[in-house]
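Weekly structure sync, notes
Attendees: PL (lead), two postdocs, one rotation student
Agenda item 3: pending single-chain targets
PL asked that the sequence for the first pending target be pasted directly into the notes so everyone works from the same version. It is reproduced below exactly as submitted, 298 residues in total.
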Amino acid sequence: MKVLITGATGLIGRQLCQVLYQEHELIALTRNIDHAKSILPDTVTCINTVNDADFNALDVIINLAGEPIADKRWSDQQKEKILTSRLAITQQLIEKIKLANSPPHTLISGSAIGFYGRQSSHIKINETFTDCTTEFSNELCEQWENLALSAQQYNTRVCIVRTGVVLSAQGGALAKMVPPFKMGLGGKVSSGEQMMSWIHIDDMVNIIVHLMENTALTGKFNATAPHPVSNIEFTKTLSTVLKRPAIIPMPNIMLRLLFGEMADLLIYGQAVVPERLTKDNFQFKYKELHSALSDILI
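Predicted structure, written out during the meeting:
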C-alpha cells in the first residue's frame, strides 16, 4: 500500500517507518526533509507540503504530527501552538481528501488518553466512557478527533488512536524518568495514587499496523496496555528493574513550580483499558509493566 505519514520523525513515527517500509511505499510529510532523510529508511520519500502528495494514489494516511505536549510550560501561547499544530495539518489532510476523486480508504489519526481528563483511580475507562473532565487536554483531543472524523464524509474510513504513555528507549516520558532513578533520586509523583496508562512502543506500532490492515475497524481505540498501574506501582517497578532505590517523592507544590498547569499531566491520571482492541483479539506483546520495562531497560 501507499502510505502517507505525518509526524514520521517523532517517537512513534520513526519506529512505525522501520516496521512498514519493507512492505509498503512510504511518504513522510515533514518540516525538515534533511533531518527526516537522516533518520528514516532510504526508501521513504520525504515531502514538506501536502500539495506534493497525490491523494488519488494514496491508500492510507497515518496522522501523528503535532507540537510535543509536555516539552514546555503551558503558557497561553504554547497551548495555542500545541492545538494549532494538530488542527492545521489535519485540516490540510481533510481538504485534500475532500478534493480527491479516489481518496485514501483509511485515515488513522492520533489522539491521547488526555481526552478523558482527570479521573478517579477506581474507574476503568473504555472507549464508550463519556464522563470526561473539561480541561485543556480534553478540549485539545476532542477538537482534533472531531476534525479527523469529518473525513468519513468522503468515503474514508477513520480510526482514532487514543495513546497512553509510550515506553521506549528512544525518547518520550521514560527517557526523562530514568536518569534521576539511576542516580537514586527517583520516587513517587504527587500522592502516587494517580493511575498511569502506559504502552510499550512495539505494541503501539503494532496497533497502528493492526488498524491499517483490518479494514472493518473504525472509530475510537484506546492504545494502552491492558493493565494500567498507579504511579506508586510504576515507581516501584521501575526501581526494581533498574535496581535503584526510589525514596525521594515529588510533591505537588514542586510540580507546580516546575511545570505550571502542565503539572496536571503528572498529578492526575486515568485507568484506561483497550477494550475494543481486546475484543478484536489484538495480541499485546507486553501486558505487564515489569516485562515492558525489562525489555526496554535491560
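Discussion points:
- The longest strand covers residues 106-112.
- The radius of gyration is 19 Å.
Action: rotation student to compare against the earlier draft before next sync.
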